[in-house]
Amino acid sequence: MKIWFDTEFYENGKTIELISIGAIREDGATYYAESPTGYDAASIDPWLVENVRPHLVGGENVKHRDVIAADLIEFAGERPEFWAYYADYDWVVLCQLFGRMIDLPKGWPMYCRDIKQWCDSLGNPELPKQESAEHNALADAVWNRQAWEFLASCQYMAERKAR
After folding, report:
1. How far is CA 57 from CA 19, 46, 83, 133, 138, in A?
2. Pairing mode of beta strands 2-11, 81-84
3. CA angle 133, 135, 141 (to 5 degrees)
């Protein structure tokens, strides 16, 4: 099962701290959660204050890290294929929910596939414009899926043309 996801996070060059995470599966089901420290983390840096904090909704979306990890296991299943845009930090933040990378759930990959790298390998076509709010983790995850679908059609057309 493909899972497209995005995170919002605070980082200072030494630490990466989860603020929020959003994901969408192939079947269209979505998941969104915020860290209990997310609002405070989004208040540290002026860029986060301006771009991320306005999208935090709080309430029942605020969950402890162990709950988010358990939710993600249930959401993603046993053999997920993770995709993100500029995925490096997002993947680290997701993995840290489980402790160390070697603590990831059984059957989960120890890597994430990167939409931007795939885009570059296809000649860097212009991706669809994101119509929803940027830096909202769930909206960004939905856009990641749209970008992936666009690139899949680009690859299909290139392969068809090469025949």
Report:
1. 11, 19, 24, 13, 12
2. parallel
3. 85
What three-state secondary structure class fits 128?
coil
**Residue 142: CA count within 13 A, CB half-sphere:** 15
Per-residue tens of pLDDT for the chain, all 163 residues = 999 999 999 999 999 999 999 999 999 999 999 999 999 999 999 999 999 999 999 999 999 999 999 999 999 999 999 999 999 999 999 999 999 989 999 999 999 999 999 999 999 999 999 998 899 999 999 999 999 999 999 876 766 677 6
What is the C-alpha separation between 146 and 130, in angstroms, rounded?
A: 9
**Residue 106 identity:** K
HEC letters along 53-115: HHHCCCHHHECCHHHHHHHHHHHHCCCCEEEECCCHHHHHHHHHCCCCHHHCCCCCCCCCEEH
Give the 3-state secondary structure of residue 136.
Answer: coil
CA-based nearest residue to 130, from 115, 116, 114, 147: 147
The residues with which 163 forms a beta bridge, in sequence order, are none
